Amino acid sequence: MNDVARPVYKRILLKLSGEALMGGQDYGIEPAVIGRIANDLGELNRRGVEVAVVIGGGNIFRGKGLAEAGMDRVTADQMGMLATVINALALQDSLESCGLYCRVMSAIKINQVCEDYIRRRAVRHLEKGRIVVFAAGTGNPFFTTDSAAALRASEIDADLMLKATKVDGVYDADPVKHPDAKRYERLTYDDVLTRKLGVMDATAIVMCRDNDIPLRIFNIFREGDLLRIVMGEQVGTIVASE
What we know:
Elements (H helix, E strand, L loop, with lengths): L10 E6 L14 H16 L3 E6 L7 H6 L4 H25 L4 E5 L8 E2 L2 H9 L3 E5 L9 H11 L4 E6 L4 E2 L11 E2 L1 E3 H7 L6 H9 L4 E5 L5 H6 L6 E4 L2
Parallel strand pairs: 1-2, 1-6, 2-5, 3-4, 3-5, 6-10, 9-11
Antiparallel strand pairs: 7-8, 10-11
Helix pairs in contact: 1-3, 5-7, 6-7
């Protein structure tokens, strides 16, 4: 492979929401959507990029929403963690259908269906070219999967963290409601915090800032954008140091 075609990033972590798996459905997993995501990840893997994924569970249910409806918050969050395991197993199956090697690692013990999360083992899987899917958030209630993604990205020393969304970056207003909304090409971590832009929760942003992990927000539904980012193109919005 010539130098021009080499990926800019060696190891990335993709934060994928559960809602992204629904496609046009109101609930659950759309096979065509998860299949396309698996193909995109496979293309990165074939180019030598070490790929880790943190996946949410909002397409099944959200712990915070259940808690707001009156359920005990700890119980609700534990149910949300289990939902992320379901999604992780679905993504693993889709990746393996593409001929890729994948390991699901859970922050809560569920040994009959996936591995426990052990940092050194996760790094070793990545070094061997396996895609690693991190499930069950941090394993603790009151923490979002955004925070789990920032934590895992820090632990595995990722070169870049990617936040997959339904819009092509961060805007100063909701682009659906405000067609004239301005998209930011670059922000600092402190910009995101002080302007309360809602890119990720504050805990995740602070963790990325303190560990100097650049964060790029992009539209997961725009075909080819994930590869373009890894190859060095300026897609979406980058959040980084000054």
